Amino acid sequence: MADPARSISSAARFGLTESRAEQALRAAGLWGDVGPQAEYEVILTALSRSPDPDLALRGLDRIRESDLDAWPELRDALVADRRLRGRLVAVLGGSSALSDFLAARRGEWRRLAGDGTPVDGYNAALYAAVGADAQTDGQGPVATLRGAEAVRALKFAYRGLLLEIAADDLGHVVEPGLPAAVYDVIAGRLSDLAEAALRAALAVAWEENGAAPVQERARLAVIAMGKCGGHELNYVSDVDVVFAGEGDSSLATRVATAMMRVASEACFEVDAGLRPEGRNGALVRTLDGHSAYYKRWAKTWEFQALLKARFVAGDAGLGATYLDTVRPMVWNAADRENFVPEVQAMRRRVEEHVPSELLDRELKLGRGGLRDVEFAVQLLQLVHGRTDEALRLGSTVDALAALGAGGYVGRTDAAELGESYRFLRTLEHRLQLQRLRRTHLFPADSETADLRWLARATGIGPERGRSAAQVLQADFKRHGNRIRRLHEKLFYRPLLEAVSRVPTDALRLTAQEARARLAALGYTSPQGALQHIKALTEGVSRRAAIQMAILPVLLDLLGKTPDPDGGLLAYRKVSEALSGTPWYLRVLRDEGAVAERLATLLGTSKLVPDLVVRAPEVLRLLAEPKELAVRDPAEVATSLRNAVNRHGYLGNAVTAARSLRRHELLRVACADLLGFMDVMSVCSALSSVWSAVLQAAIAAVDRAEAAAAGGRQAAVAVIGMGRLGGAELGYGSDADVLFVCEPAPGVSDSDAVRYASRVAQAVRKLLGSPSQDPPLQVDVDLRPEGRQGPIVRTLESYRAYYAQWGEIWETQALLRARPVAGDEELGARFIELIDPIRYPEGGLDATQVREIRRIKARVDTERLPRGADPTTHTKLGRGGLADIEWTIQLVQLRHAHACPSLRTTSTVDALANAAAAGLIDPDDARALREAWLLVTRVRNAATLVRGKQTDQVPTHGRELAAVVSALREPLSEDPGEFLDAYRRTTRRARAIVEHIFYD
């Protein structure tokens, strides 16, 4: 008598959990008195690997019961033939529907023992089932069976071939040594089988309508759409078709109707809803009828559906003519107005119809589902396939690979999206195969048994302490999130809509037509532009392919800038310089905002292109305005200091400082030109960058000098003057500074000064050495005694000089003094020293006021460059920066001793505080502030446009237009009107200056 406990334990070892398991095993002869028969353990091991061991065992038992005579043969074959064992057991545990088929059809298991039916034999097999001659030419053969008999024969033949495909698909799960069939192959075989089924059903339909498909009576072509047309069908799916007919339309319609009925009853649902006018339209249309409809009435989604159209049955000549008729319309669909937004809206509508509780479980229609991939791929195909025939593919995975190979999608994105798509399609196949029912719903978290079955059917096992079901859930979420991320990146790519707006004809112009179009876009030298385009796109490299996708949009974008020719030349130079930068073109292609903003920058500024070549990483920031415009000055200073400190060699340290300054200068310039920073933020940011560079440079030089001298002999502080002190620097401004030192304990003043002088001179020399970057000039001309005086003084030397020899202009210069680098404590004591000097007790006497006015008048007459227009010179012109700054500085010198709010280095703050204290009329203060801000903005814009420091406003031509564009002011579309407005503003400021400054 067998031990029940031992038997149950032995059964559990093979994953068999049902109480009936032992009974079934005994009946099959696989079980002895105390456990499994040794010679049959390979069968039990295969059962244990099955997606559902109990289901597989029940299926095996049902096959045995249906044909007891053949059971010993099957049992022995399962032991001897690993391929049969793996394929049969996998099917039995993976599909209850196919298990039913095997139990009902004796001997069908033998299909799995041999090599199976080759794909090119599907037609012959199904034709033979309905009694049709596979060799018939023309529109296909006519069957000899009809009605229920034909349906039954076709159903069993189709199901048998489906069994073979499923066995190949699942066999490796049970027997790991068997080859694993990839998704692409399985989907292709299912499509070929469906195509053969449609042809066999059509043969039955001709027989049922009592007529051979003679060309004189009627011609009928069956066009597959959707997944069948794309050669990527599921196990259970509607097969979408469209019919084209010629001749006897009544007969053609009856045959088409019969074909749909036979195929639907025997194999799968056949849906003709994608035909013109949908279910309300004629089932069969002539070629002229199709052509007229698509030309006049078809909606965007109908052209998207035609993307996968493929002839599958009937009259091959008619099918080819149909495709030749509609395909040109497909590849012109992207020219339709609002094409891209319509496709995007359609995807949103599809998603909205999914119940919210199922949205994250819907493999097909949900977020991160199959439709996300398909819509993105199809949209890219329709837009770029207008000119690139390599993209004209029906299969989603093939089209995605072509998009990646052609540079329209990043290689990594294409590979990841393809991998995730195949994963979801594999899950879809497994779920449908289970009961041969159409389903796209991933099991809920609570459905543990279903999750376990699906994981095993997919070949997913436990790992790292997680069950197979948990691994499956994690993979499903990971792939879904990846698909959604890439879908939103590709499907809503701004560049995609911009490309679609370029007419197809404009993408295929002859050289002469291209020159005319470029001239129309605003290029003054179309021939030169063509040469740049040729240089960027020649060859068959991936880089050239991406450029071909980007340039149509970029040319339009550059055409809207003040200097399209200069912008295209700059783009070519940047592209050639960054040809070895792997992410450059990828960012332009994938981030539409980057391409648009870069075009604006290149077509407006000569400074930006030079900086982009040497600081390309800033291009990444163009996609995120916040990252471009908002950066903490303290963070900049810390980054720069850390970068410098990593280098022991002084030259390398200063090079690092220059590099970060270049990065920040470009970042600020881009944010400024694109309107993401106001003028005060720009000036503050530029000043903080200069301060950080000085701080890092002086620290590095000080370390080097201290090491050479055997110790630090003096503390050194850098005092910002002028615009640096007022945090009002422009793009090309020098750094006006004073150097102050204090001896270290035990060091004489003379030794300390010599040490500090070496530090100061080294800083000036290193920063001011020639380079490709904008100049870094450290100007010390505001020091005591000017150019004749020592570069560095001790604190006491400054005290003595200002007390005995200081002149009123030096007092005025000290109004903007502010510590910016070096020893902070020494800098603070310098400010304590000069405060009584720059804010003199009692203000100024009449003699001092006259002297300041005399100096200002001399500046007005002598410092303005020869030939400069005083009405448009931003610094020394009438109502310019010098006028406004000298005016408020005179007010500060006269009243700051009694009005502490005037003790500021900022021009704008001083104006506001003077008005608040009643020292300047509020309206006058507002007018001066408005003029100062405008002139500062214009000065910055002119520097960006010309690529070098300039104080003269351009008065005509493209430079003036570029300055107006850079200002982003809605003053007027006419640059001349802007110039008039500028002169009015500065003229009013000059009148106020004469009133206040000259009393």
Automatic annotation (TrEMBL):
It is an enzyme of class 2 (transferase). Residues 184-322, 596-831 form the Glutamate-ammonia ligase adenylyltransferase repeated domain. It catalyses: [glutamine synthetase]-L-tyrosine + ATP = [glutamine synthetase]-O(4)-(5'-adenylyl)-L-tyrosine + diphosphate; [glutamine synthetase]-O(4)-(5'-adenylyl)-L-tyrosine + phosphate = [glutamine synthetase]-L-tyrosine + ADP. Pfam families: GlnD_UR_UTase (PF08335), GlnE (PF03710). Signal peptide: none annotated. Residues 503-999 are annotated as: Adenylyl transferase. GO terms for molecular function: [glutamate-ammonia-ligase] adenylyltransferase activity; [glutamine synthetase]-adenylyl-L-tyrosine phosphorylase activity; ATP binding; ligase activity; magnesium ion binding. CDD domains: NT_GlnE_GlnD_like (cd05401). Keywords: ATP-binding, Ligase, Magnesium, Multifunctional enzyme, Nucleotide-binding, Nucleotidyltransferase, Transferase. HAMAP family: GlnE. Involved in the regulation of glutamine synthetase GlnA, a key enzyme in the process to assimilate ammonia. When cellular nitrogen levels are high, the C-terminal adenylyl transferase (AT) inactivates GlnA by covalent transfer of an adenylyl group from ATP to specific tyrosine residue of GlnA, thus reducing its activity. Conversely, when nitrogen levels are low, the N-terminal adenylyl removase (AR) activates GlnA by removing the adenylyl group by phosphorolysis, increasing its activity. This is Bifunctional glutamine synthetase adenylyltransferase/adenylyl-removing enzyme.
